[in-house]
């Protein structure tokens, strides 16, 4: 159906790079003691893959068998991924930060035969349920060097080598379970062609990228958006350093010095918020120069769009860039040429700020079911506010039948070699989202402009109608509320009601500073009961929204929550999306009180 770009399997991609870039650094791990990164070359990485593939073959792993892994991003994770494909088997990745019942469900549903577990502590959490899974033959603990460890398996493989298989492009490469907002996770079957075609399409958007490029790995490879980064850099002969944790990203950027990033908007929102907070606290000349830079950058951009220029504007920007913006770029490693962002909408004001500063943010769009990329902004084609035009051989169609003939938007349908092979063991769910001609119904609303740039306008399942008949798209409002310095998370509720209510989790790091200045309690529960706290937060949020949203969209009442929405309490998915039903059920009584007459 599609003329695929070669190589069309990840085994061949790796082997080509091992031959061509044998001495190049590939994956870097932080030495926490020395505070520096230690790198494995493509050549040494390829040897480890050969050894593990041979070890897995001796254990009986063959075509279409499922190999599971519970592990964060690491060299070991990547070795398992490529070794499994080298036997034409499929990898089933799982998160370390996951509920035990979710691990059990996935291991059962995927019929995992061999399971890799990163740490002994995780094995201790799950070992009692493993004996009840009939397909599971072997568990390999990845740390240590004793029996039944990954090191032991690689040694056995080194003693009896097995040649790799180049899988067919239609073979299943990876089975990724979406941590859905409702019901059991759905296993998305992604073929070798799904993964490789998407990598080729992304690389075509950035033809200047090469073996000298470097990334800082922030997003989990158990999610396909992060996985795409691994395949792309392997193909390029480039390198990836692993972020130690979400709290060390700033320091890790300085050590790894990436040229490109793959990130979610929240990373840049935090940087932007942090910069303004620091400038407001410092005041004086630093803030004056920062504001001058922001304002002159905006004016310079607007003049450029009109084909004009201003000596004074350019001078102001150059001064601010030399004294202020250069230091910000150095904090981000000093080599960053840009970032591919996805998973949520980028705020245009923040996007413009980074573009003006010389760090373009290229918004992209896709889903697990599309491997992931469907559209992407790129250096030669971009529009801030959009998620770019279609990538590679893909095509975007807008179905207005679900929104009405007069609507300017509709459901986004994606076509291309990146579209999944279906949901594992769920033929009815697959049929519900696939069109007869092979398109994937995303459930997202969007519109295309005359040049083919896609704009996301909402999500069909998450939109709701107020009592007055007006539609509300809660995600957009929530994202804008979360841009506020004093807010960590938010949920909008109002389906069939007279008005919207907002459930707000404050950012207590920021709120504690405000409370200290105002002589208010340090205890968070007590602080949220105080009228002055509630009024302060309400005003902050309403002022954040009033110039963007209609009065019917802005929440009239607020519930302030001390407990964060998290993976542990089941209120967030692994990709940090809200499980609305879980949040509603927990706070149902408080919500109902907001509507009491």
Could you explain the architecture of this structure?
The protein is α/β, with parallel strands linked by helices. The protein folds into three domains: 10-259, Rossmann fold, CATH 3.40.50; 267-334 and 336-459, ANL, N-terminal domain (Rossmann fold, 3-Layer(aba) Sandwich), CATH 3.40.50.12780; 464-594, ANL, C-terminal domain (GMP Synthetase, Chain A, domain 3, 2-Layer Sandwich). The chain is 40% helix and 20% strand. The chain is built from 19 helices and 24 strands. The strands form seven sheets. The chain has a four-stranded mixed beta sheet with strand order 2-1-10-9, with helices on both faces. Helix 2 packs across helix 3 (75-85), helix 7 packs across helix 8 and helix 11 packs across helix 12 (311-331). It is globular and about 70 Å long.
Topology:
Blueprint: H1 10-20, E1 25-31, E2 36-41, H2 42-58, E3 66-70, H3 75-85, E4 90-94, H4 100-110, E5 112-117, H5 120-130, E6 138-141, H6 150-159, E7 172-178, E8 186-191, H7 192-205, E9 214-217, H8 224-236, E10 239-242, H9 249-256, E11 260-263, H10 265-282, H11 284-305, H12 311-331, E12 338-341, H13 348-356, E13 361-366, E14 373-376, E15 395-399, E16 410-415, E17 422-423, H14 427-433, E18 440-448, E19 454-459, E20 464-465, E21 471-472, H15 474-481, E22 487-493, E23 501-506, H16 508-517, H17 524-529, H18 531-545, E24 557-560, H19 580-594
Parallel strand pairs: 1-10, 3-4, 3-5, 5-6, 9-10, 11-12, 12-13, 23-24
Antiparallel strand pairs: 1-2, 7-8, 8-17, 13-14, 15-16, 16-18, 18-19, 20-21, 22-23
Helix pairs in contact: 1-2, 1-8, 2-3, 2-6, 7-8, 11-12
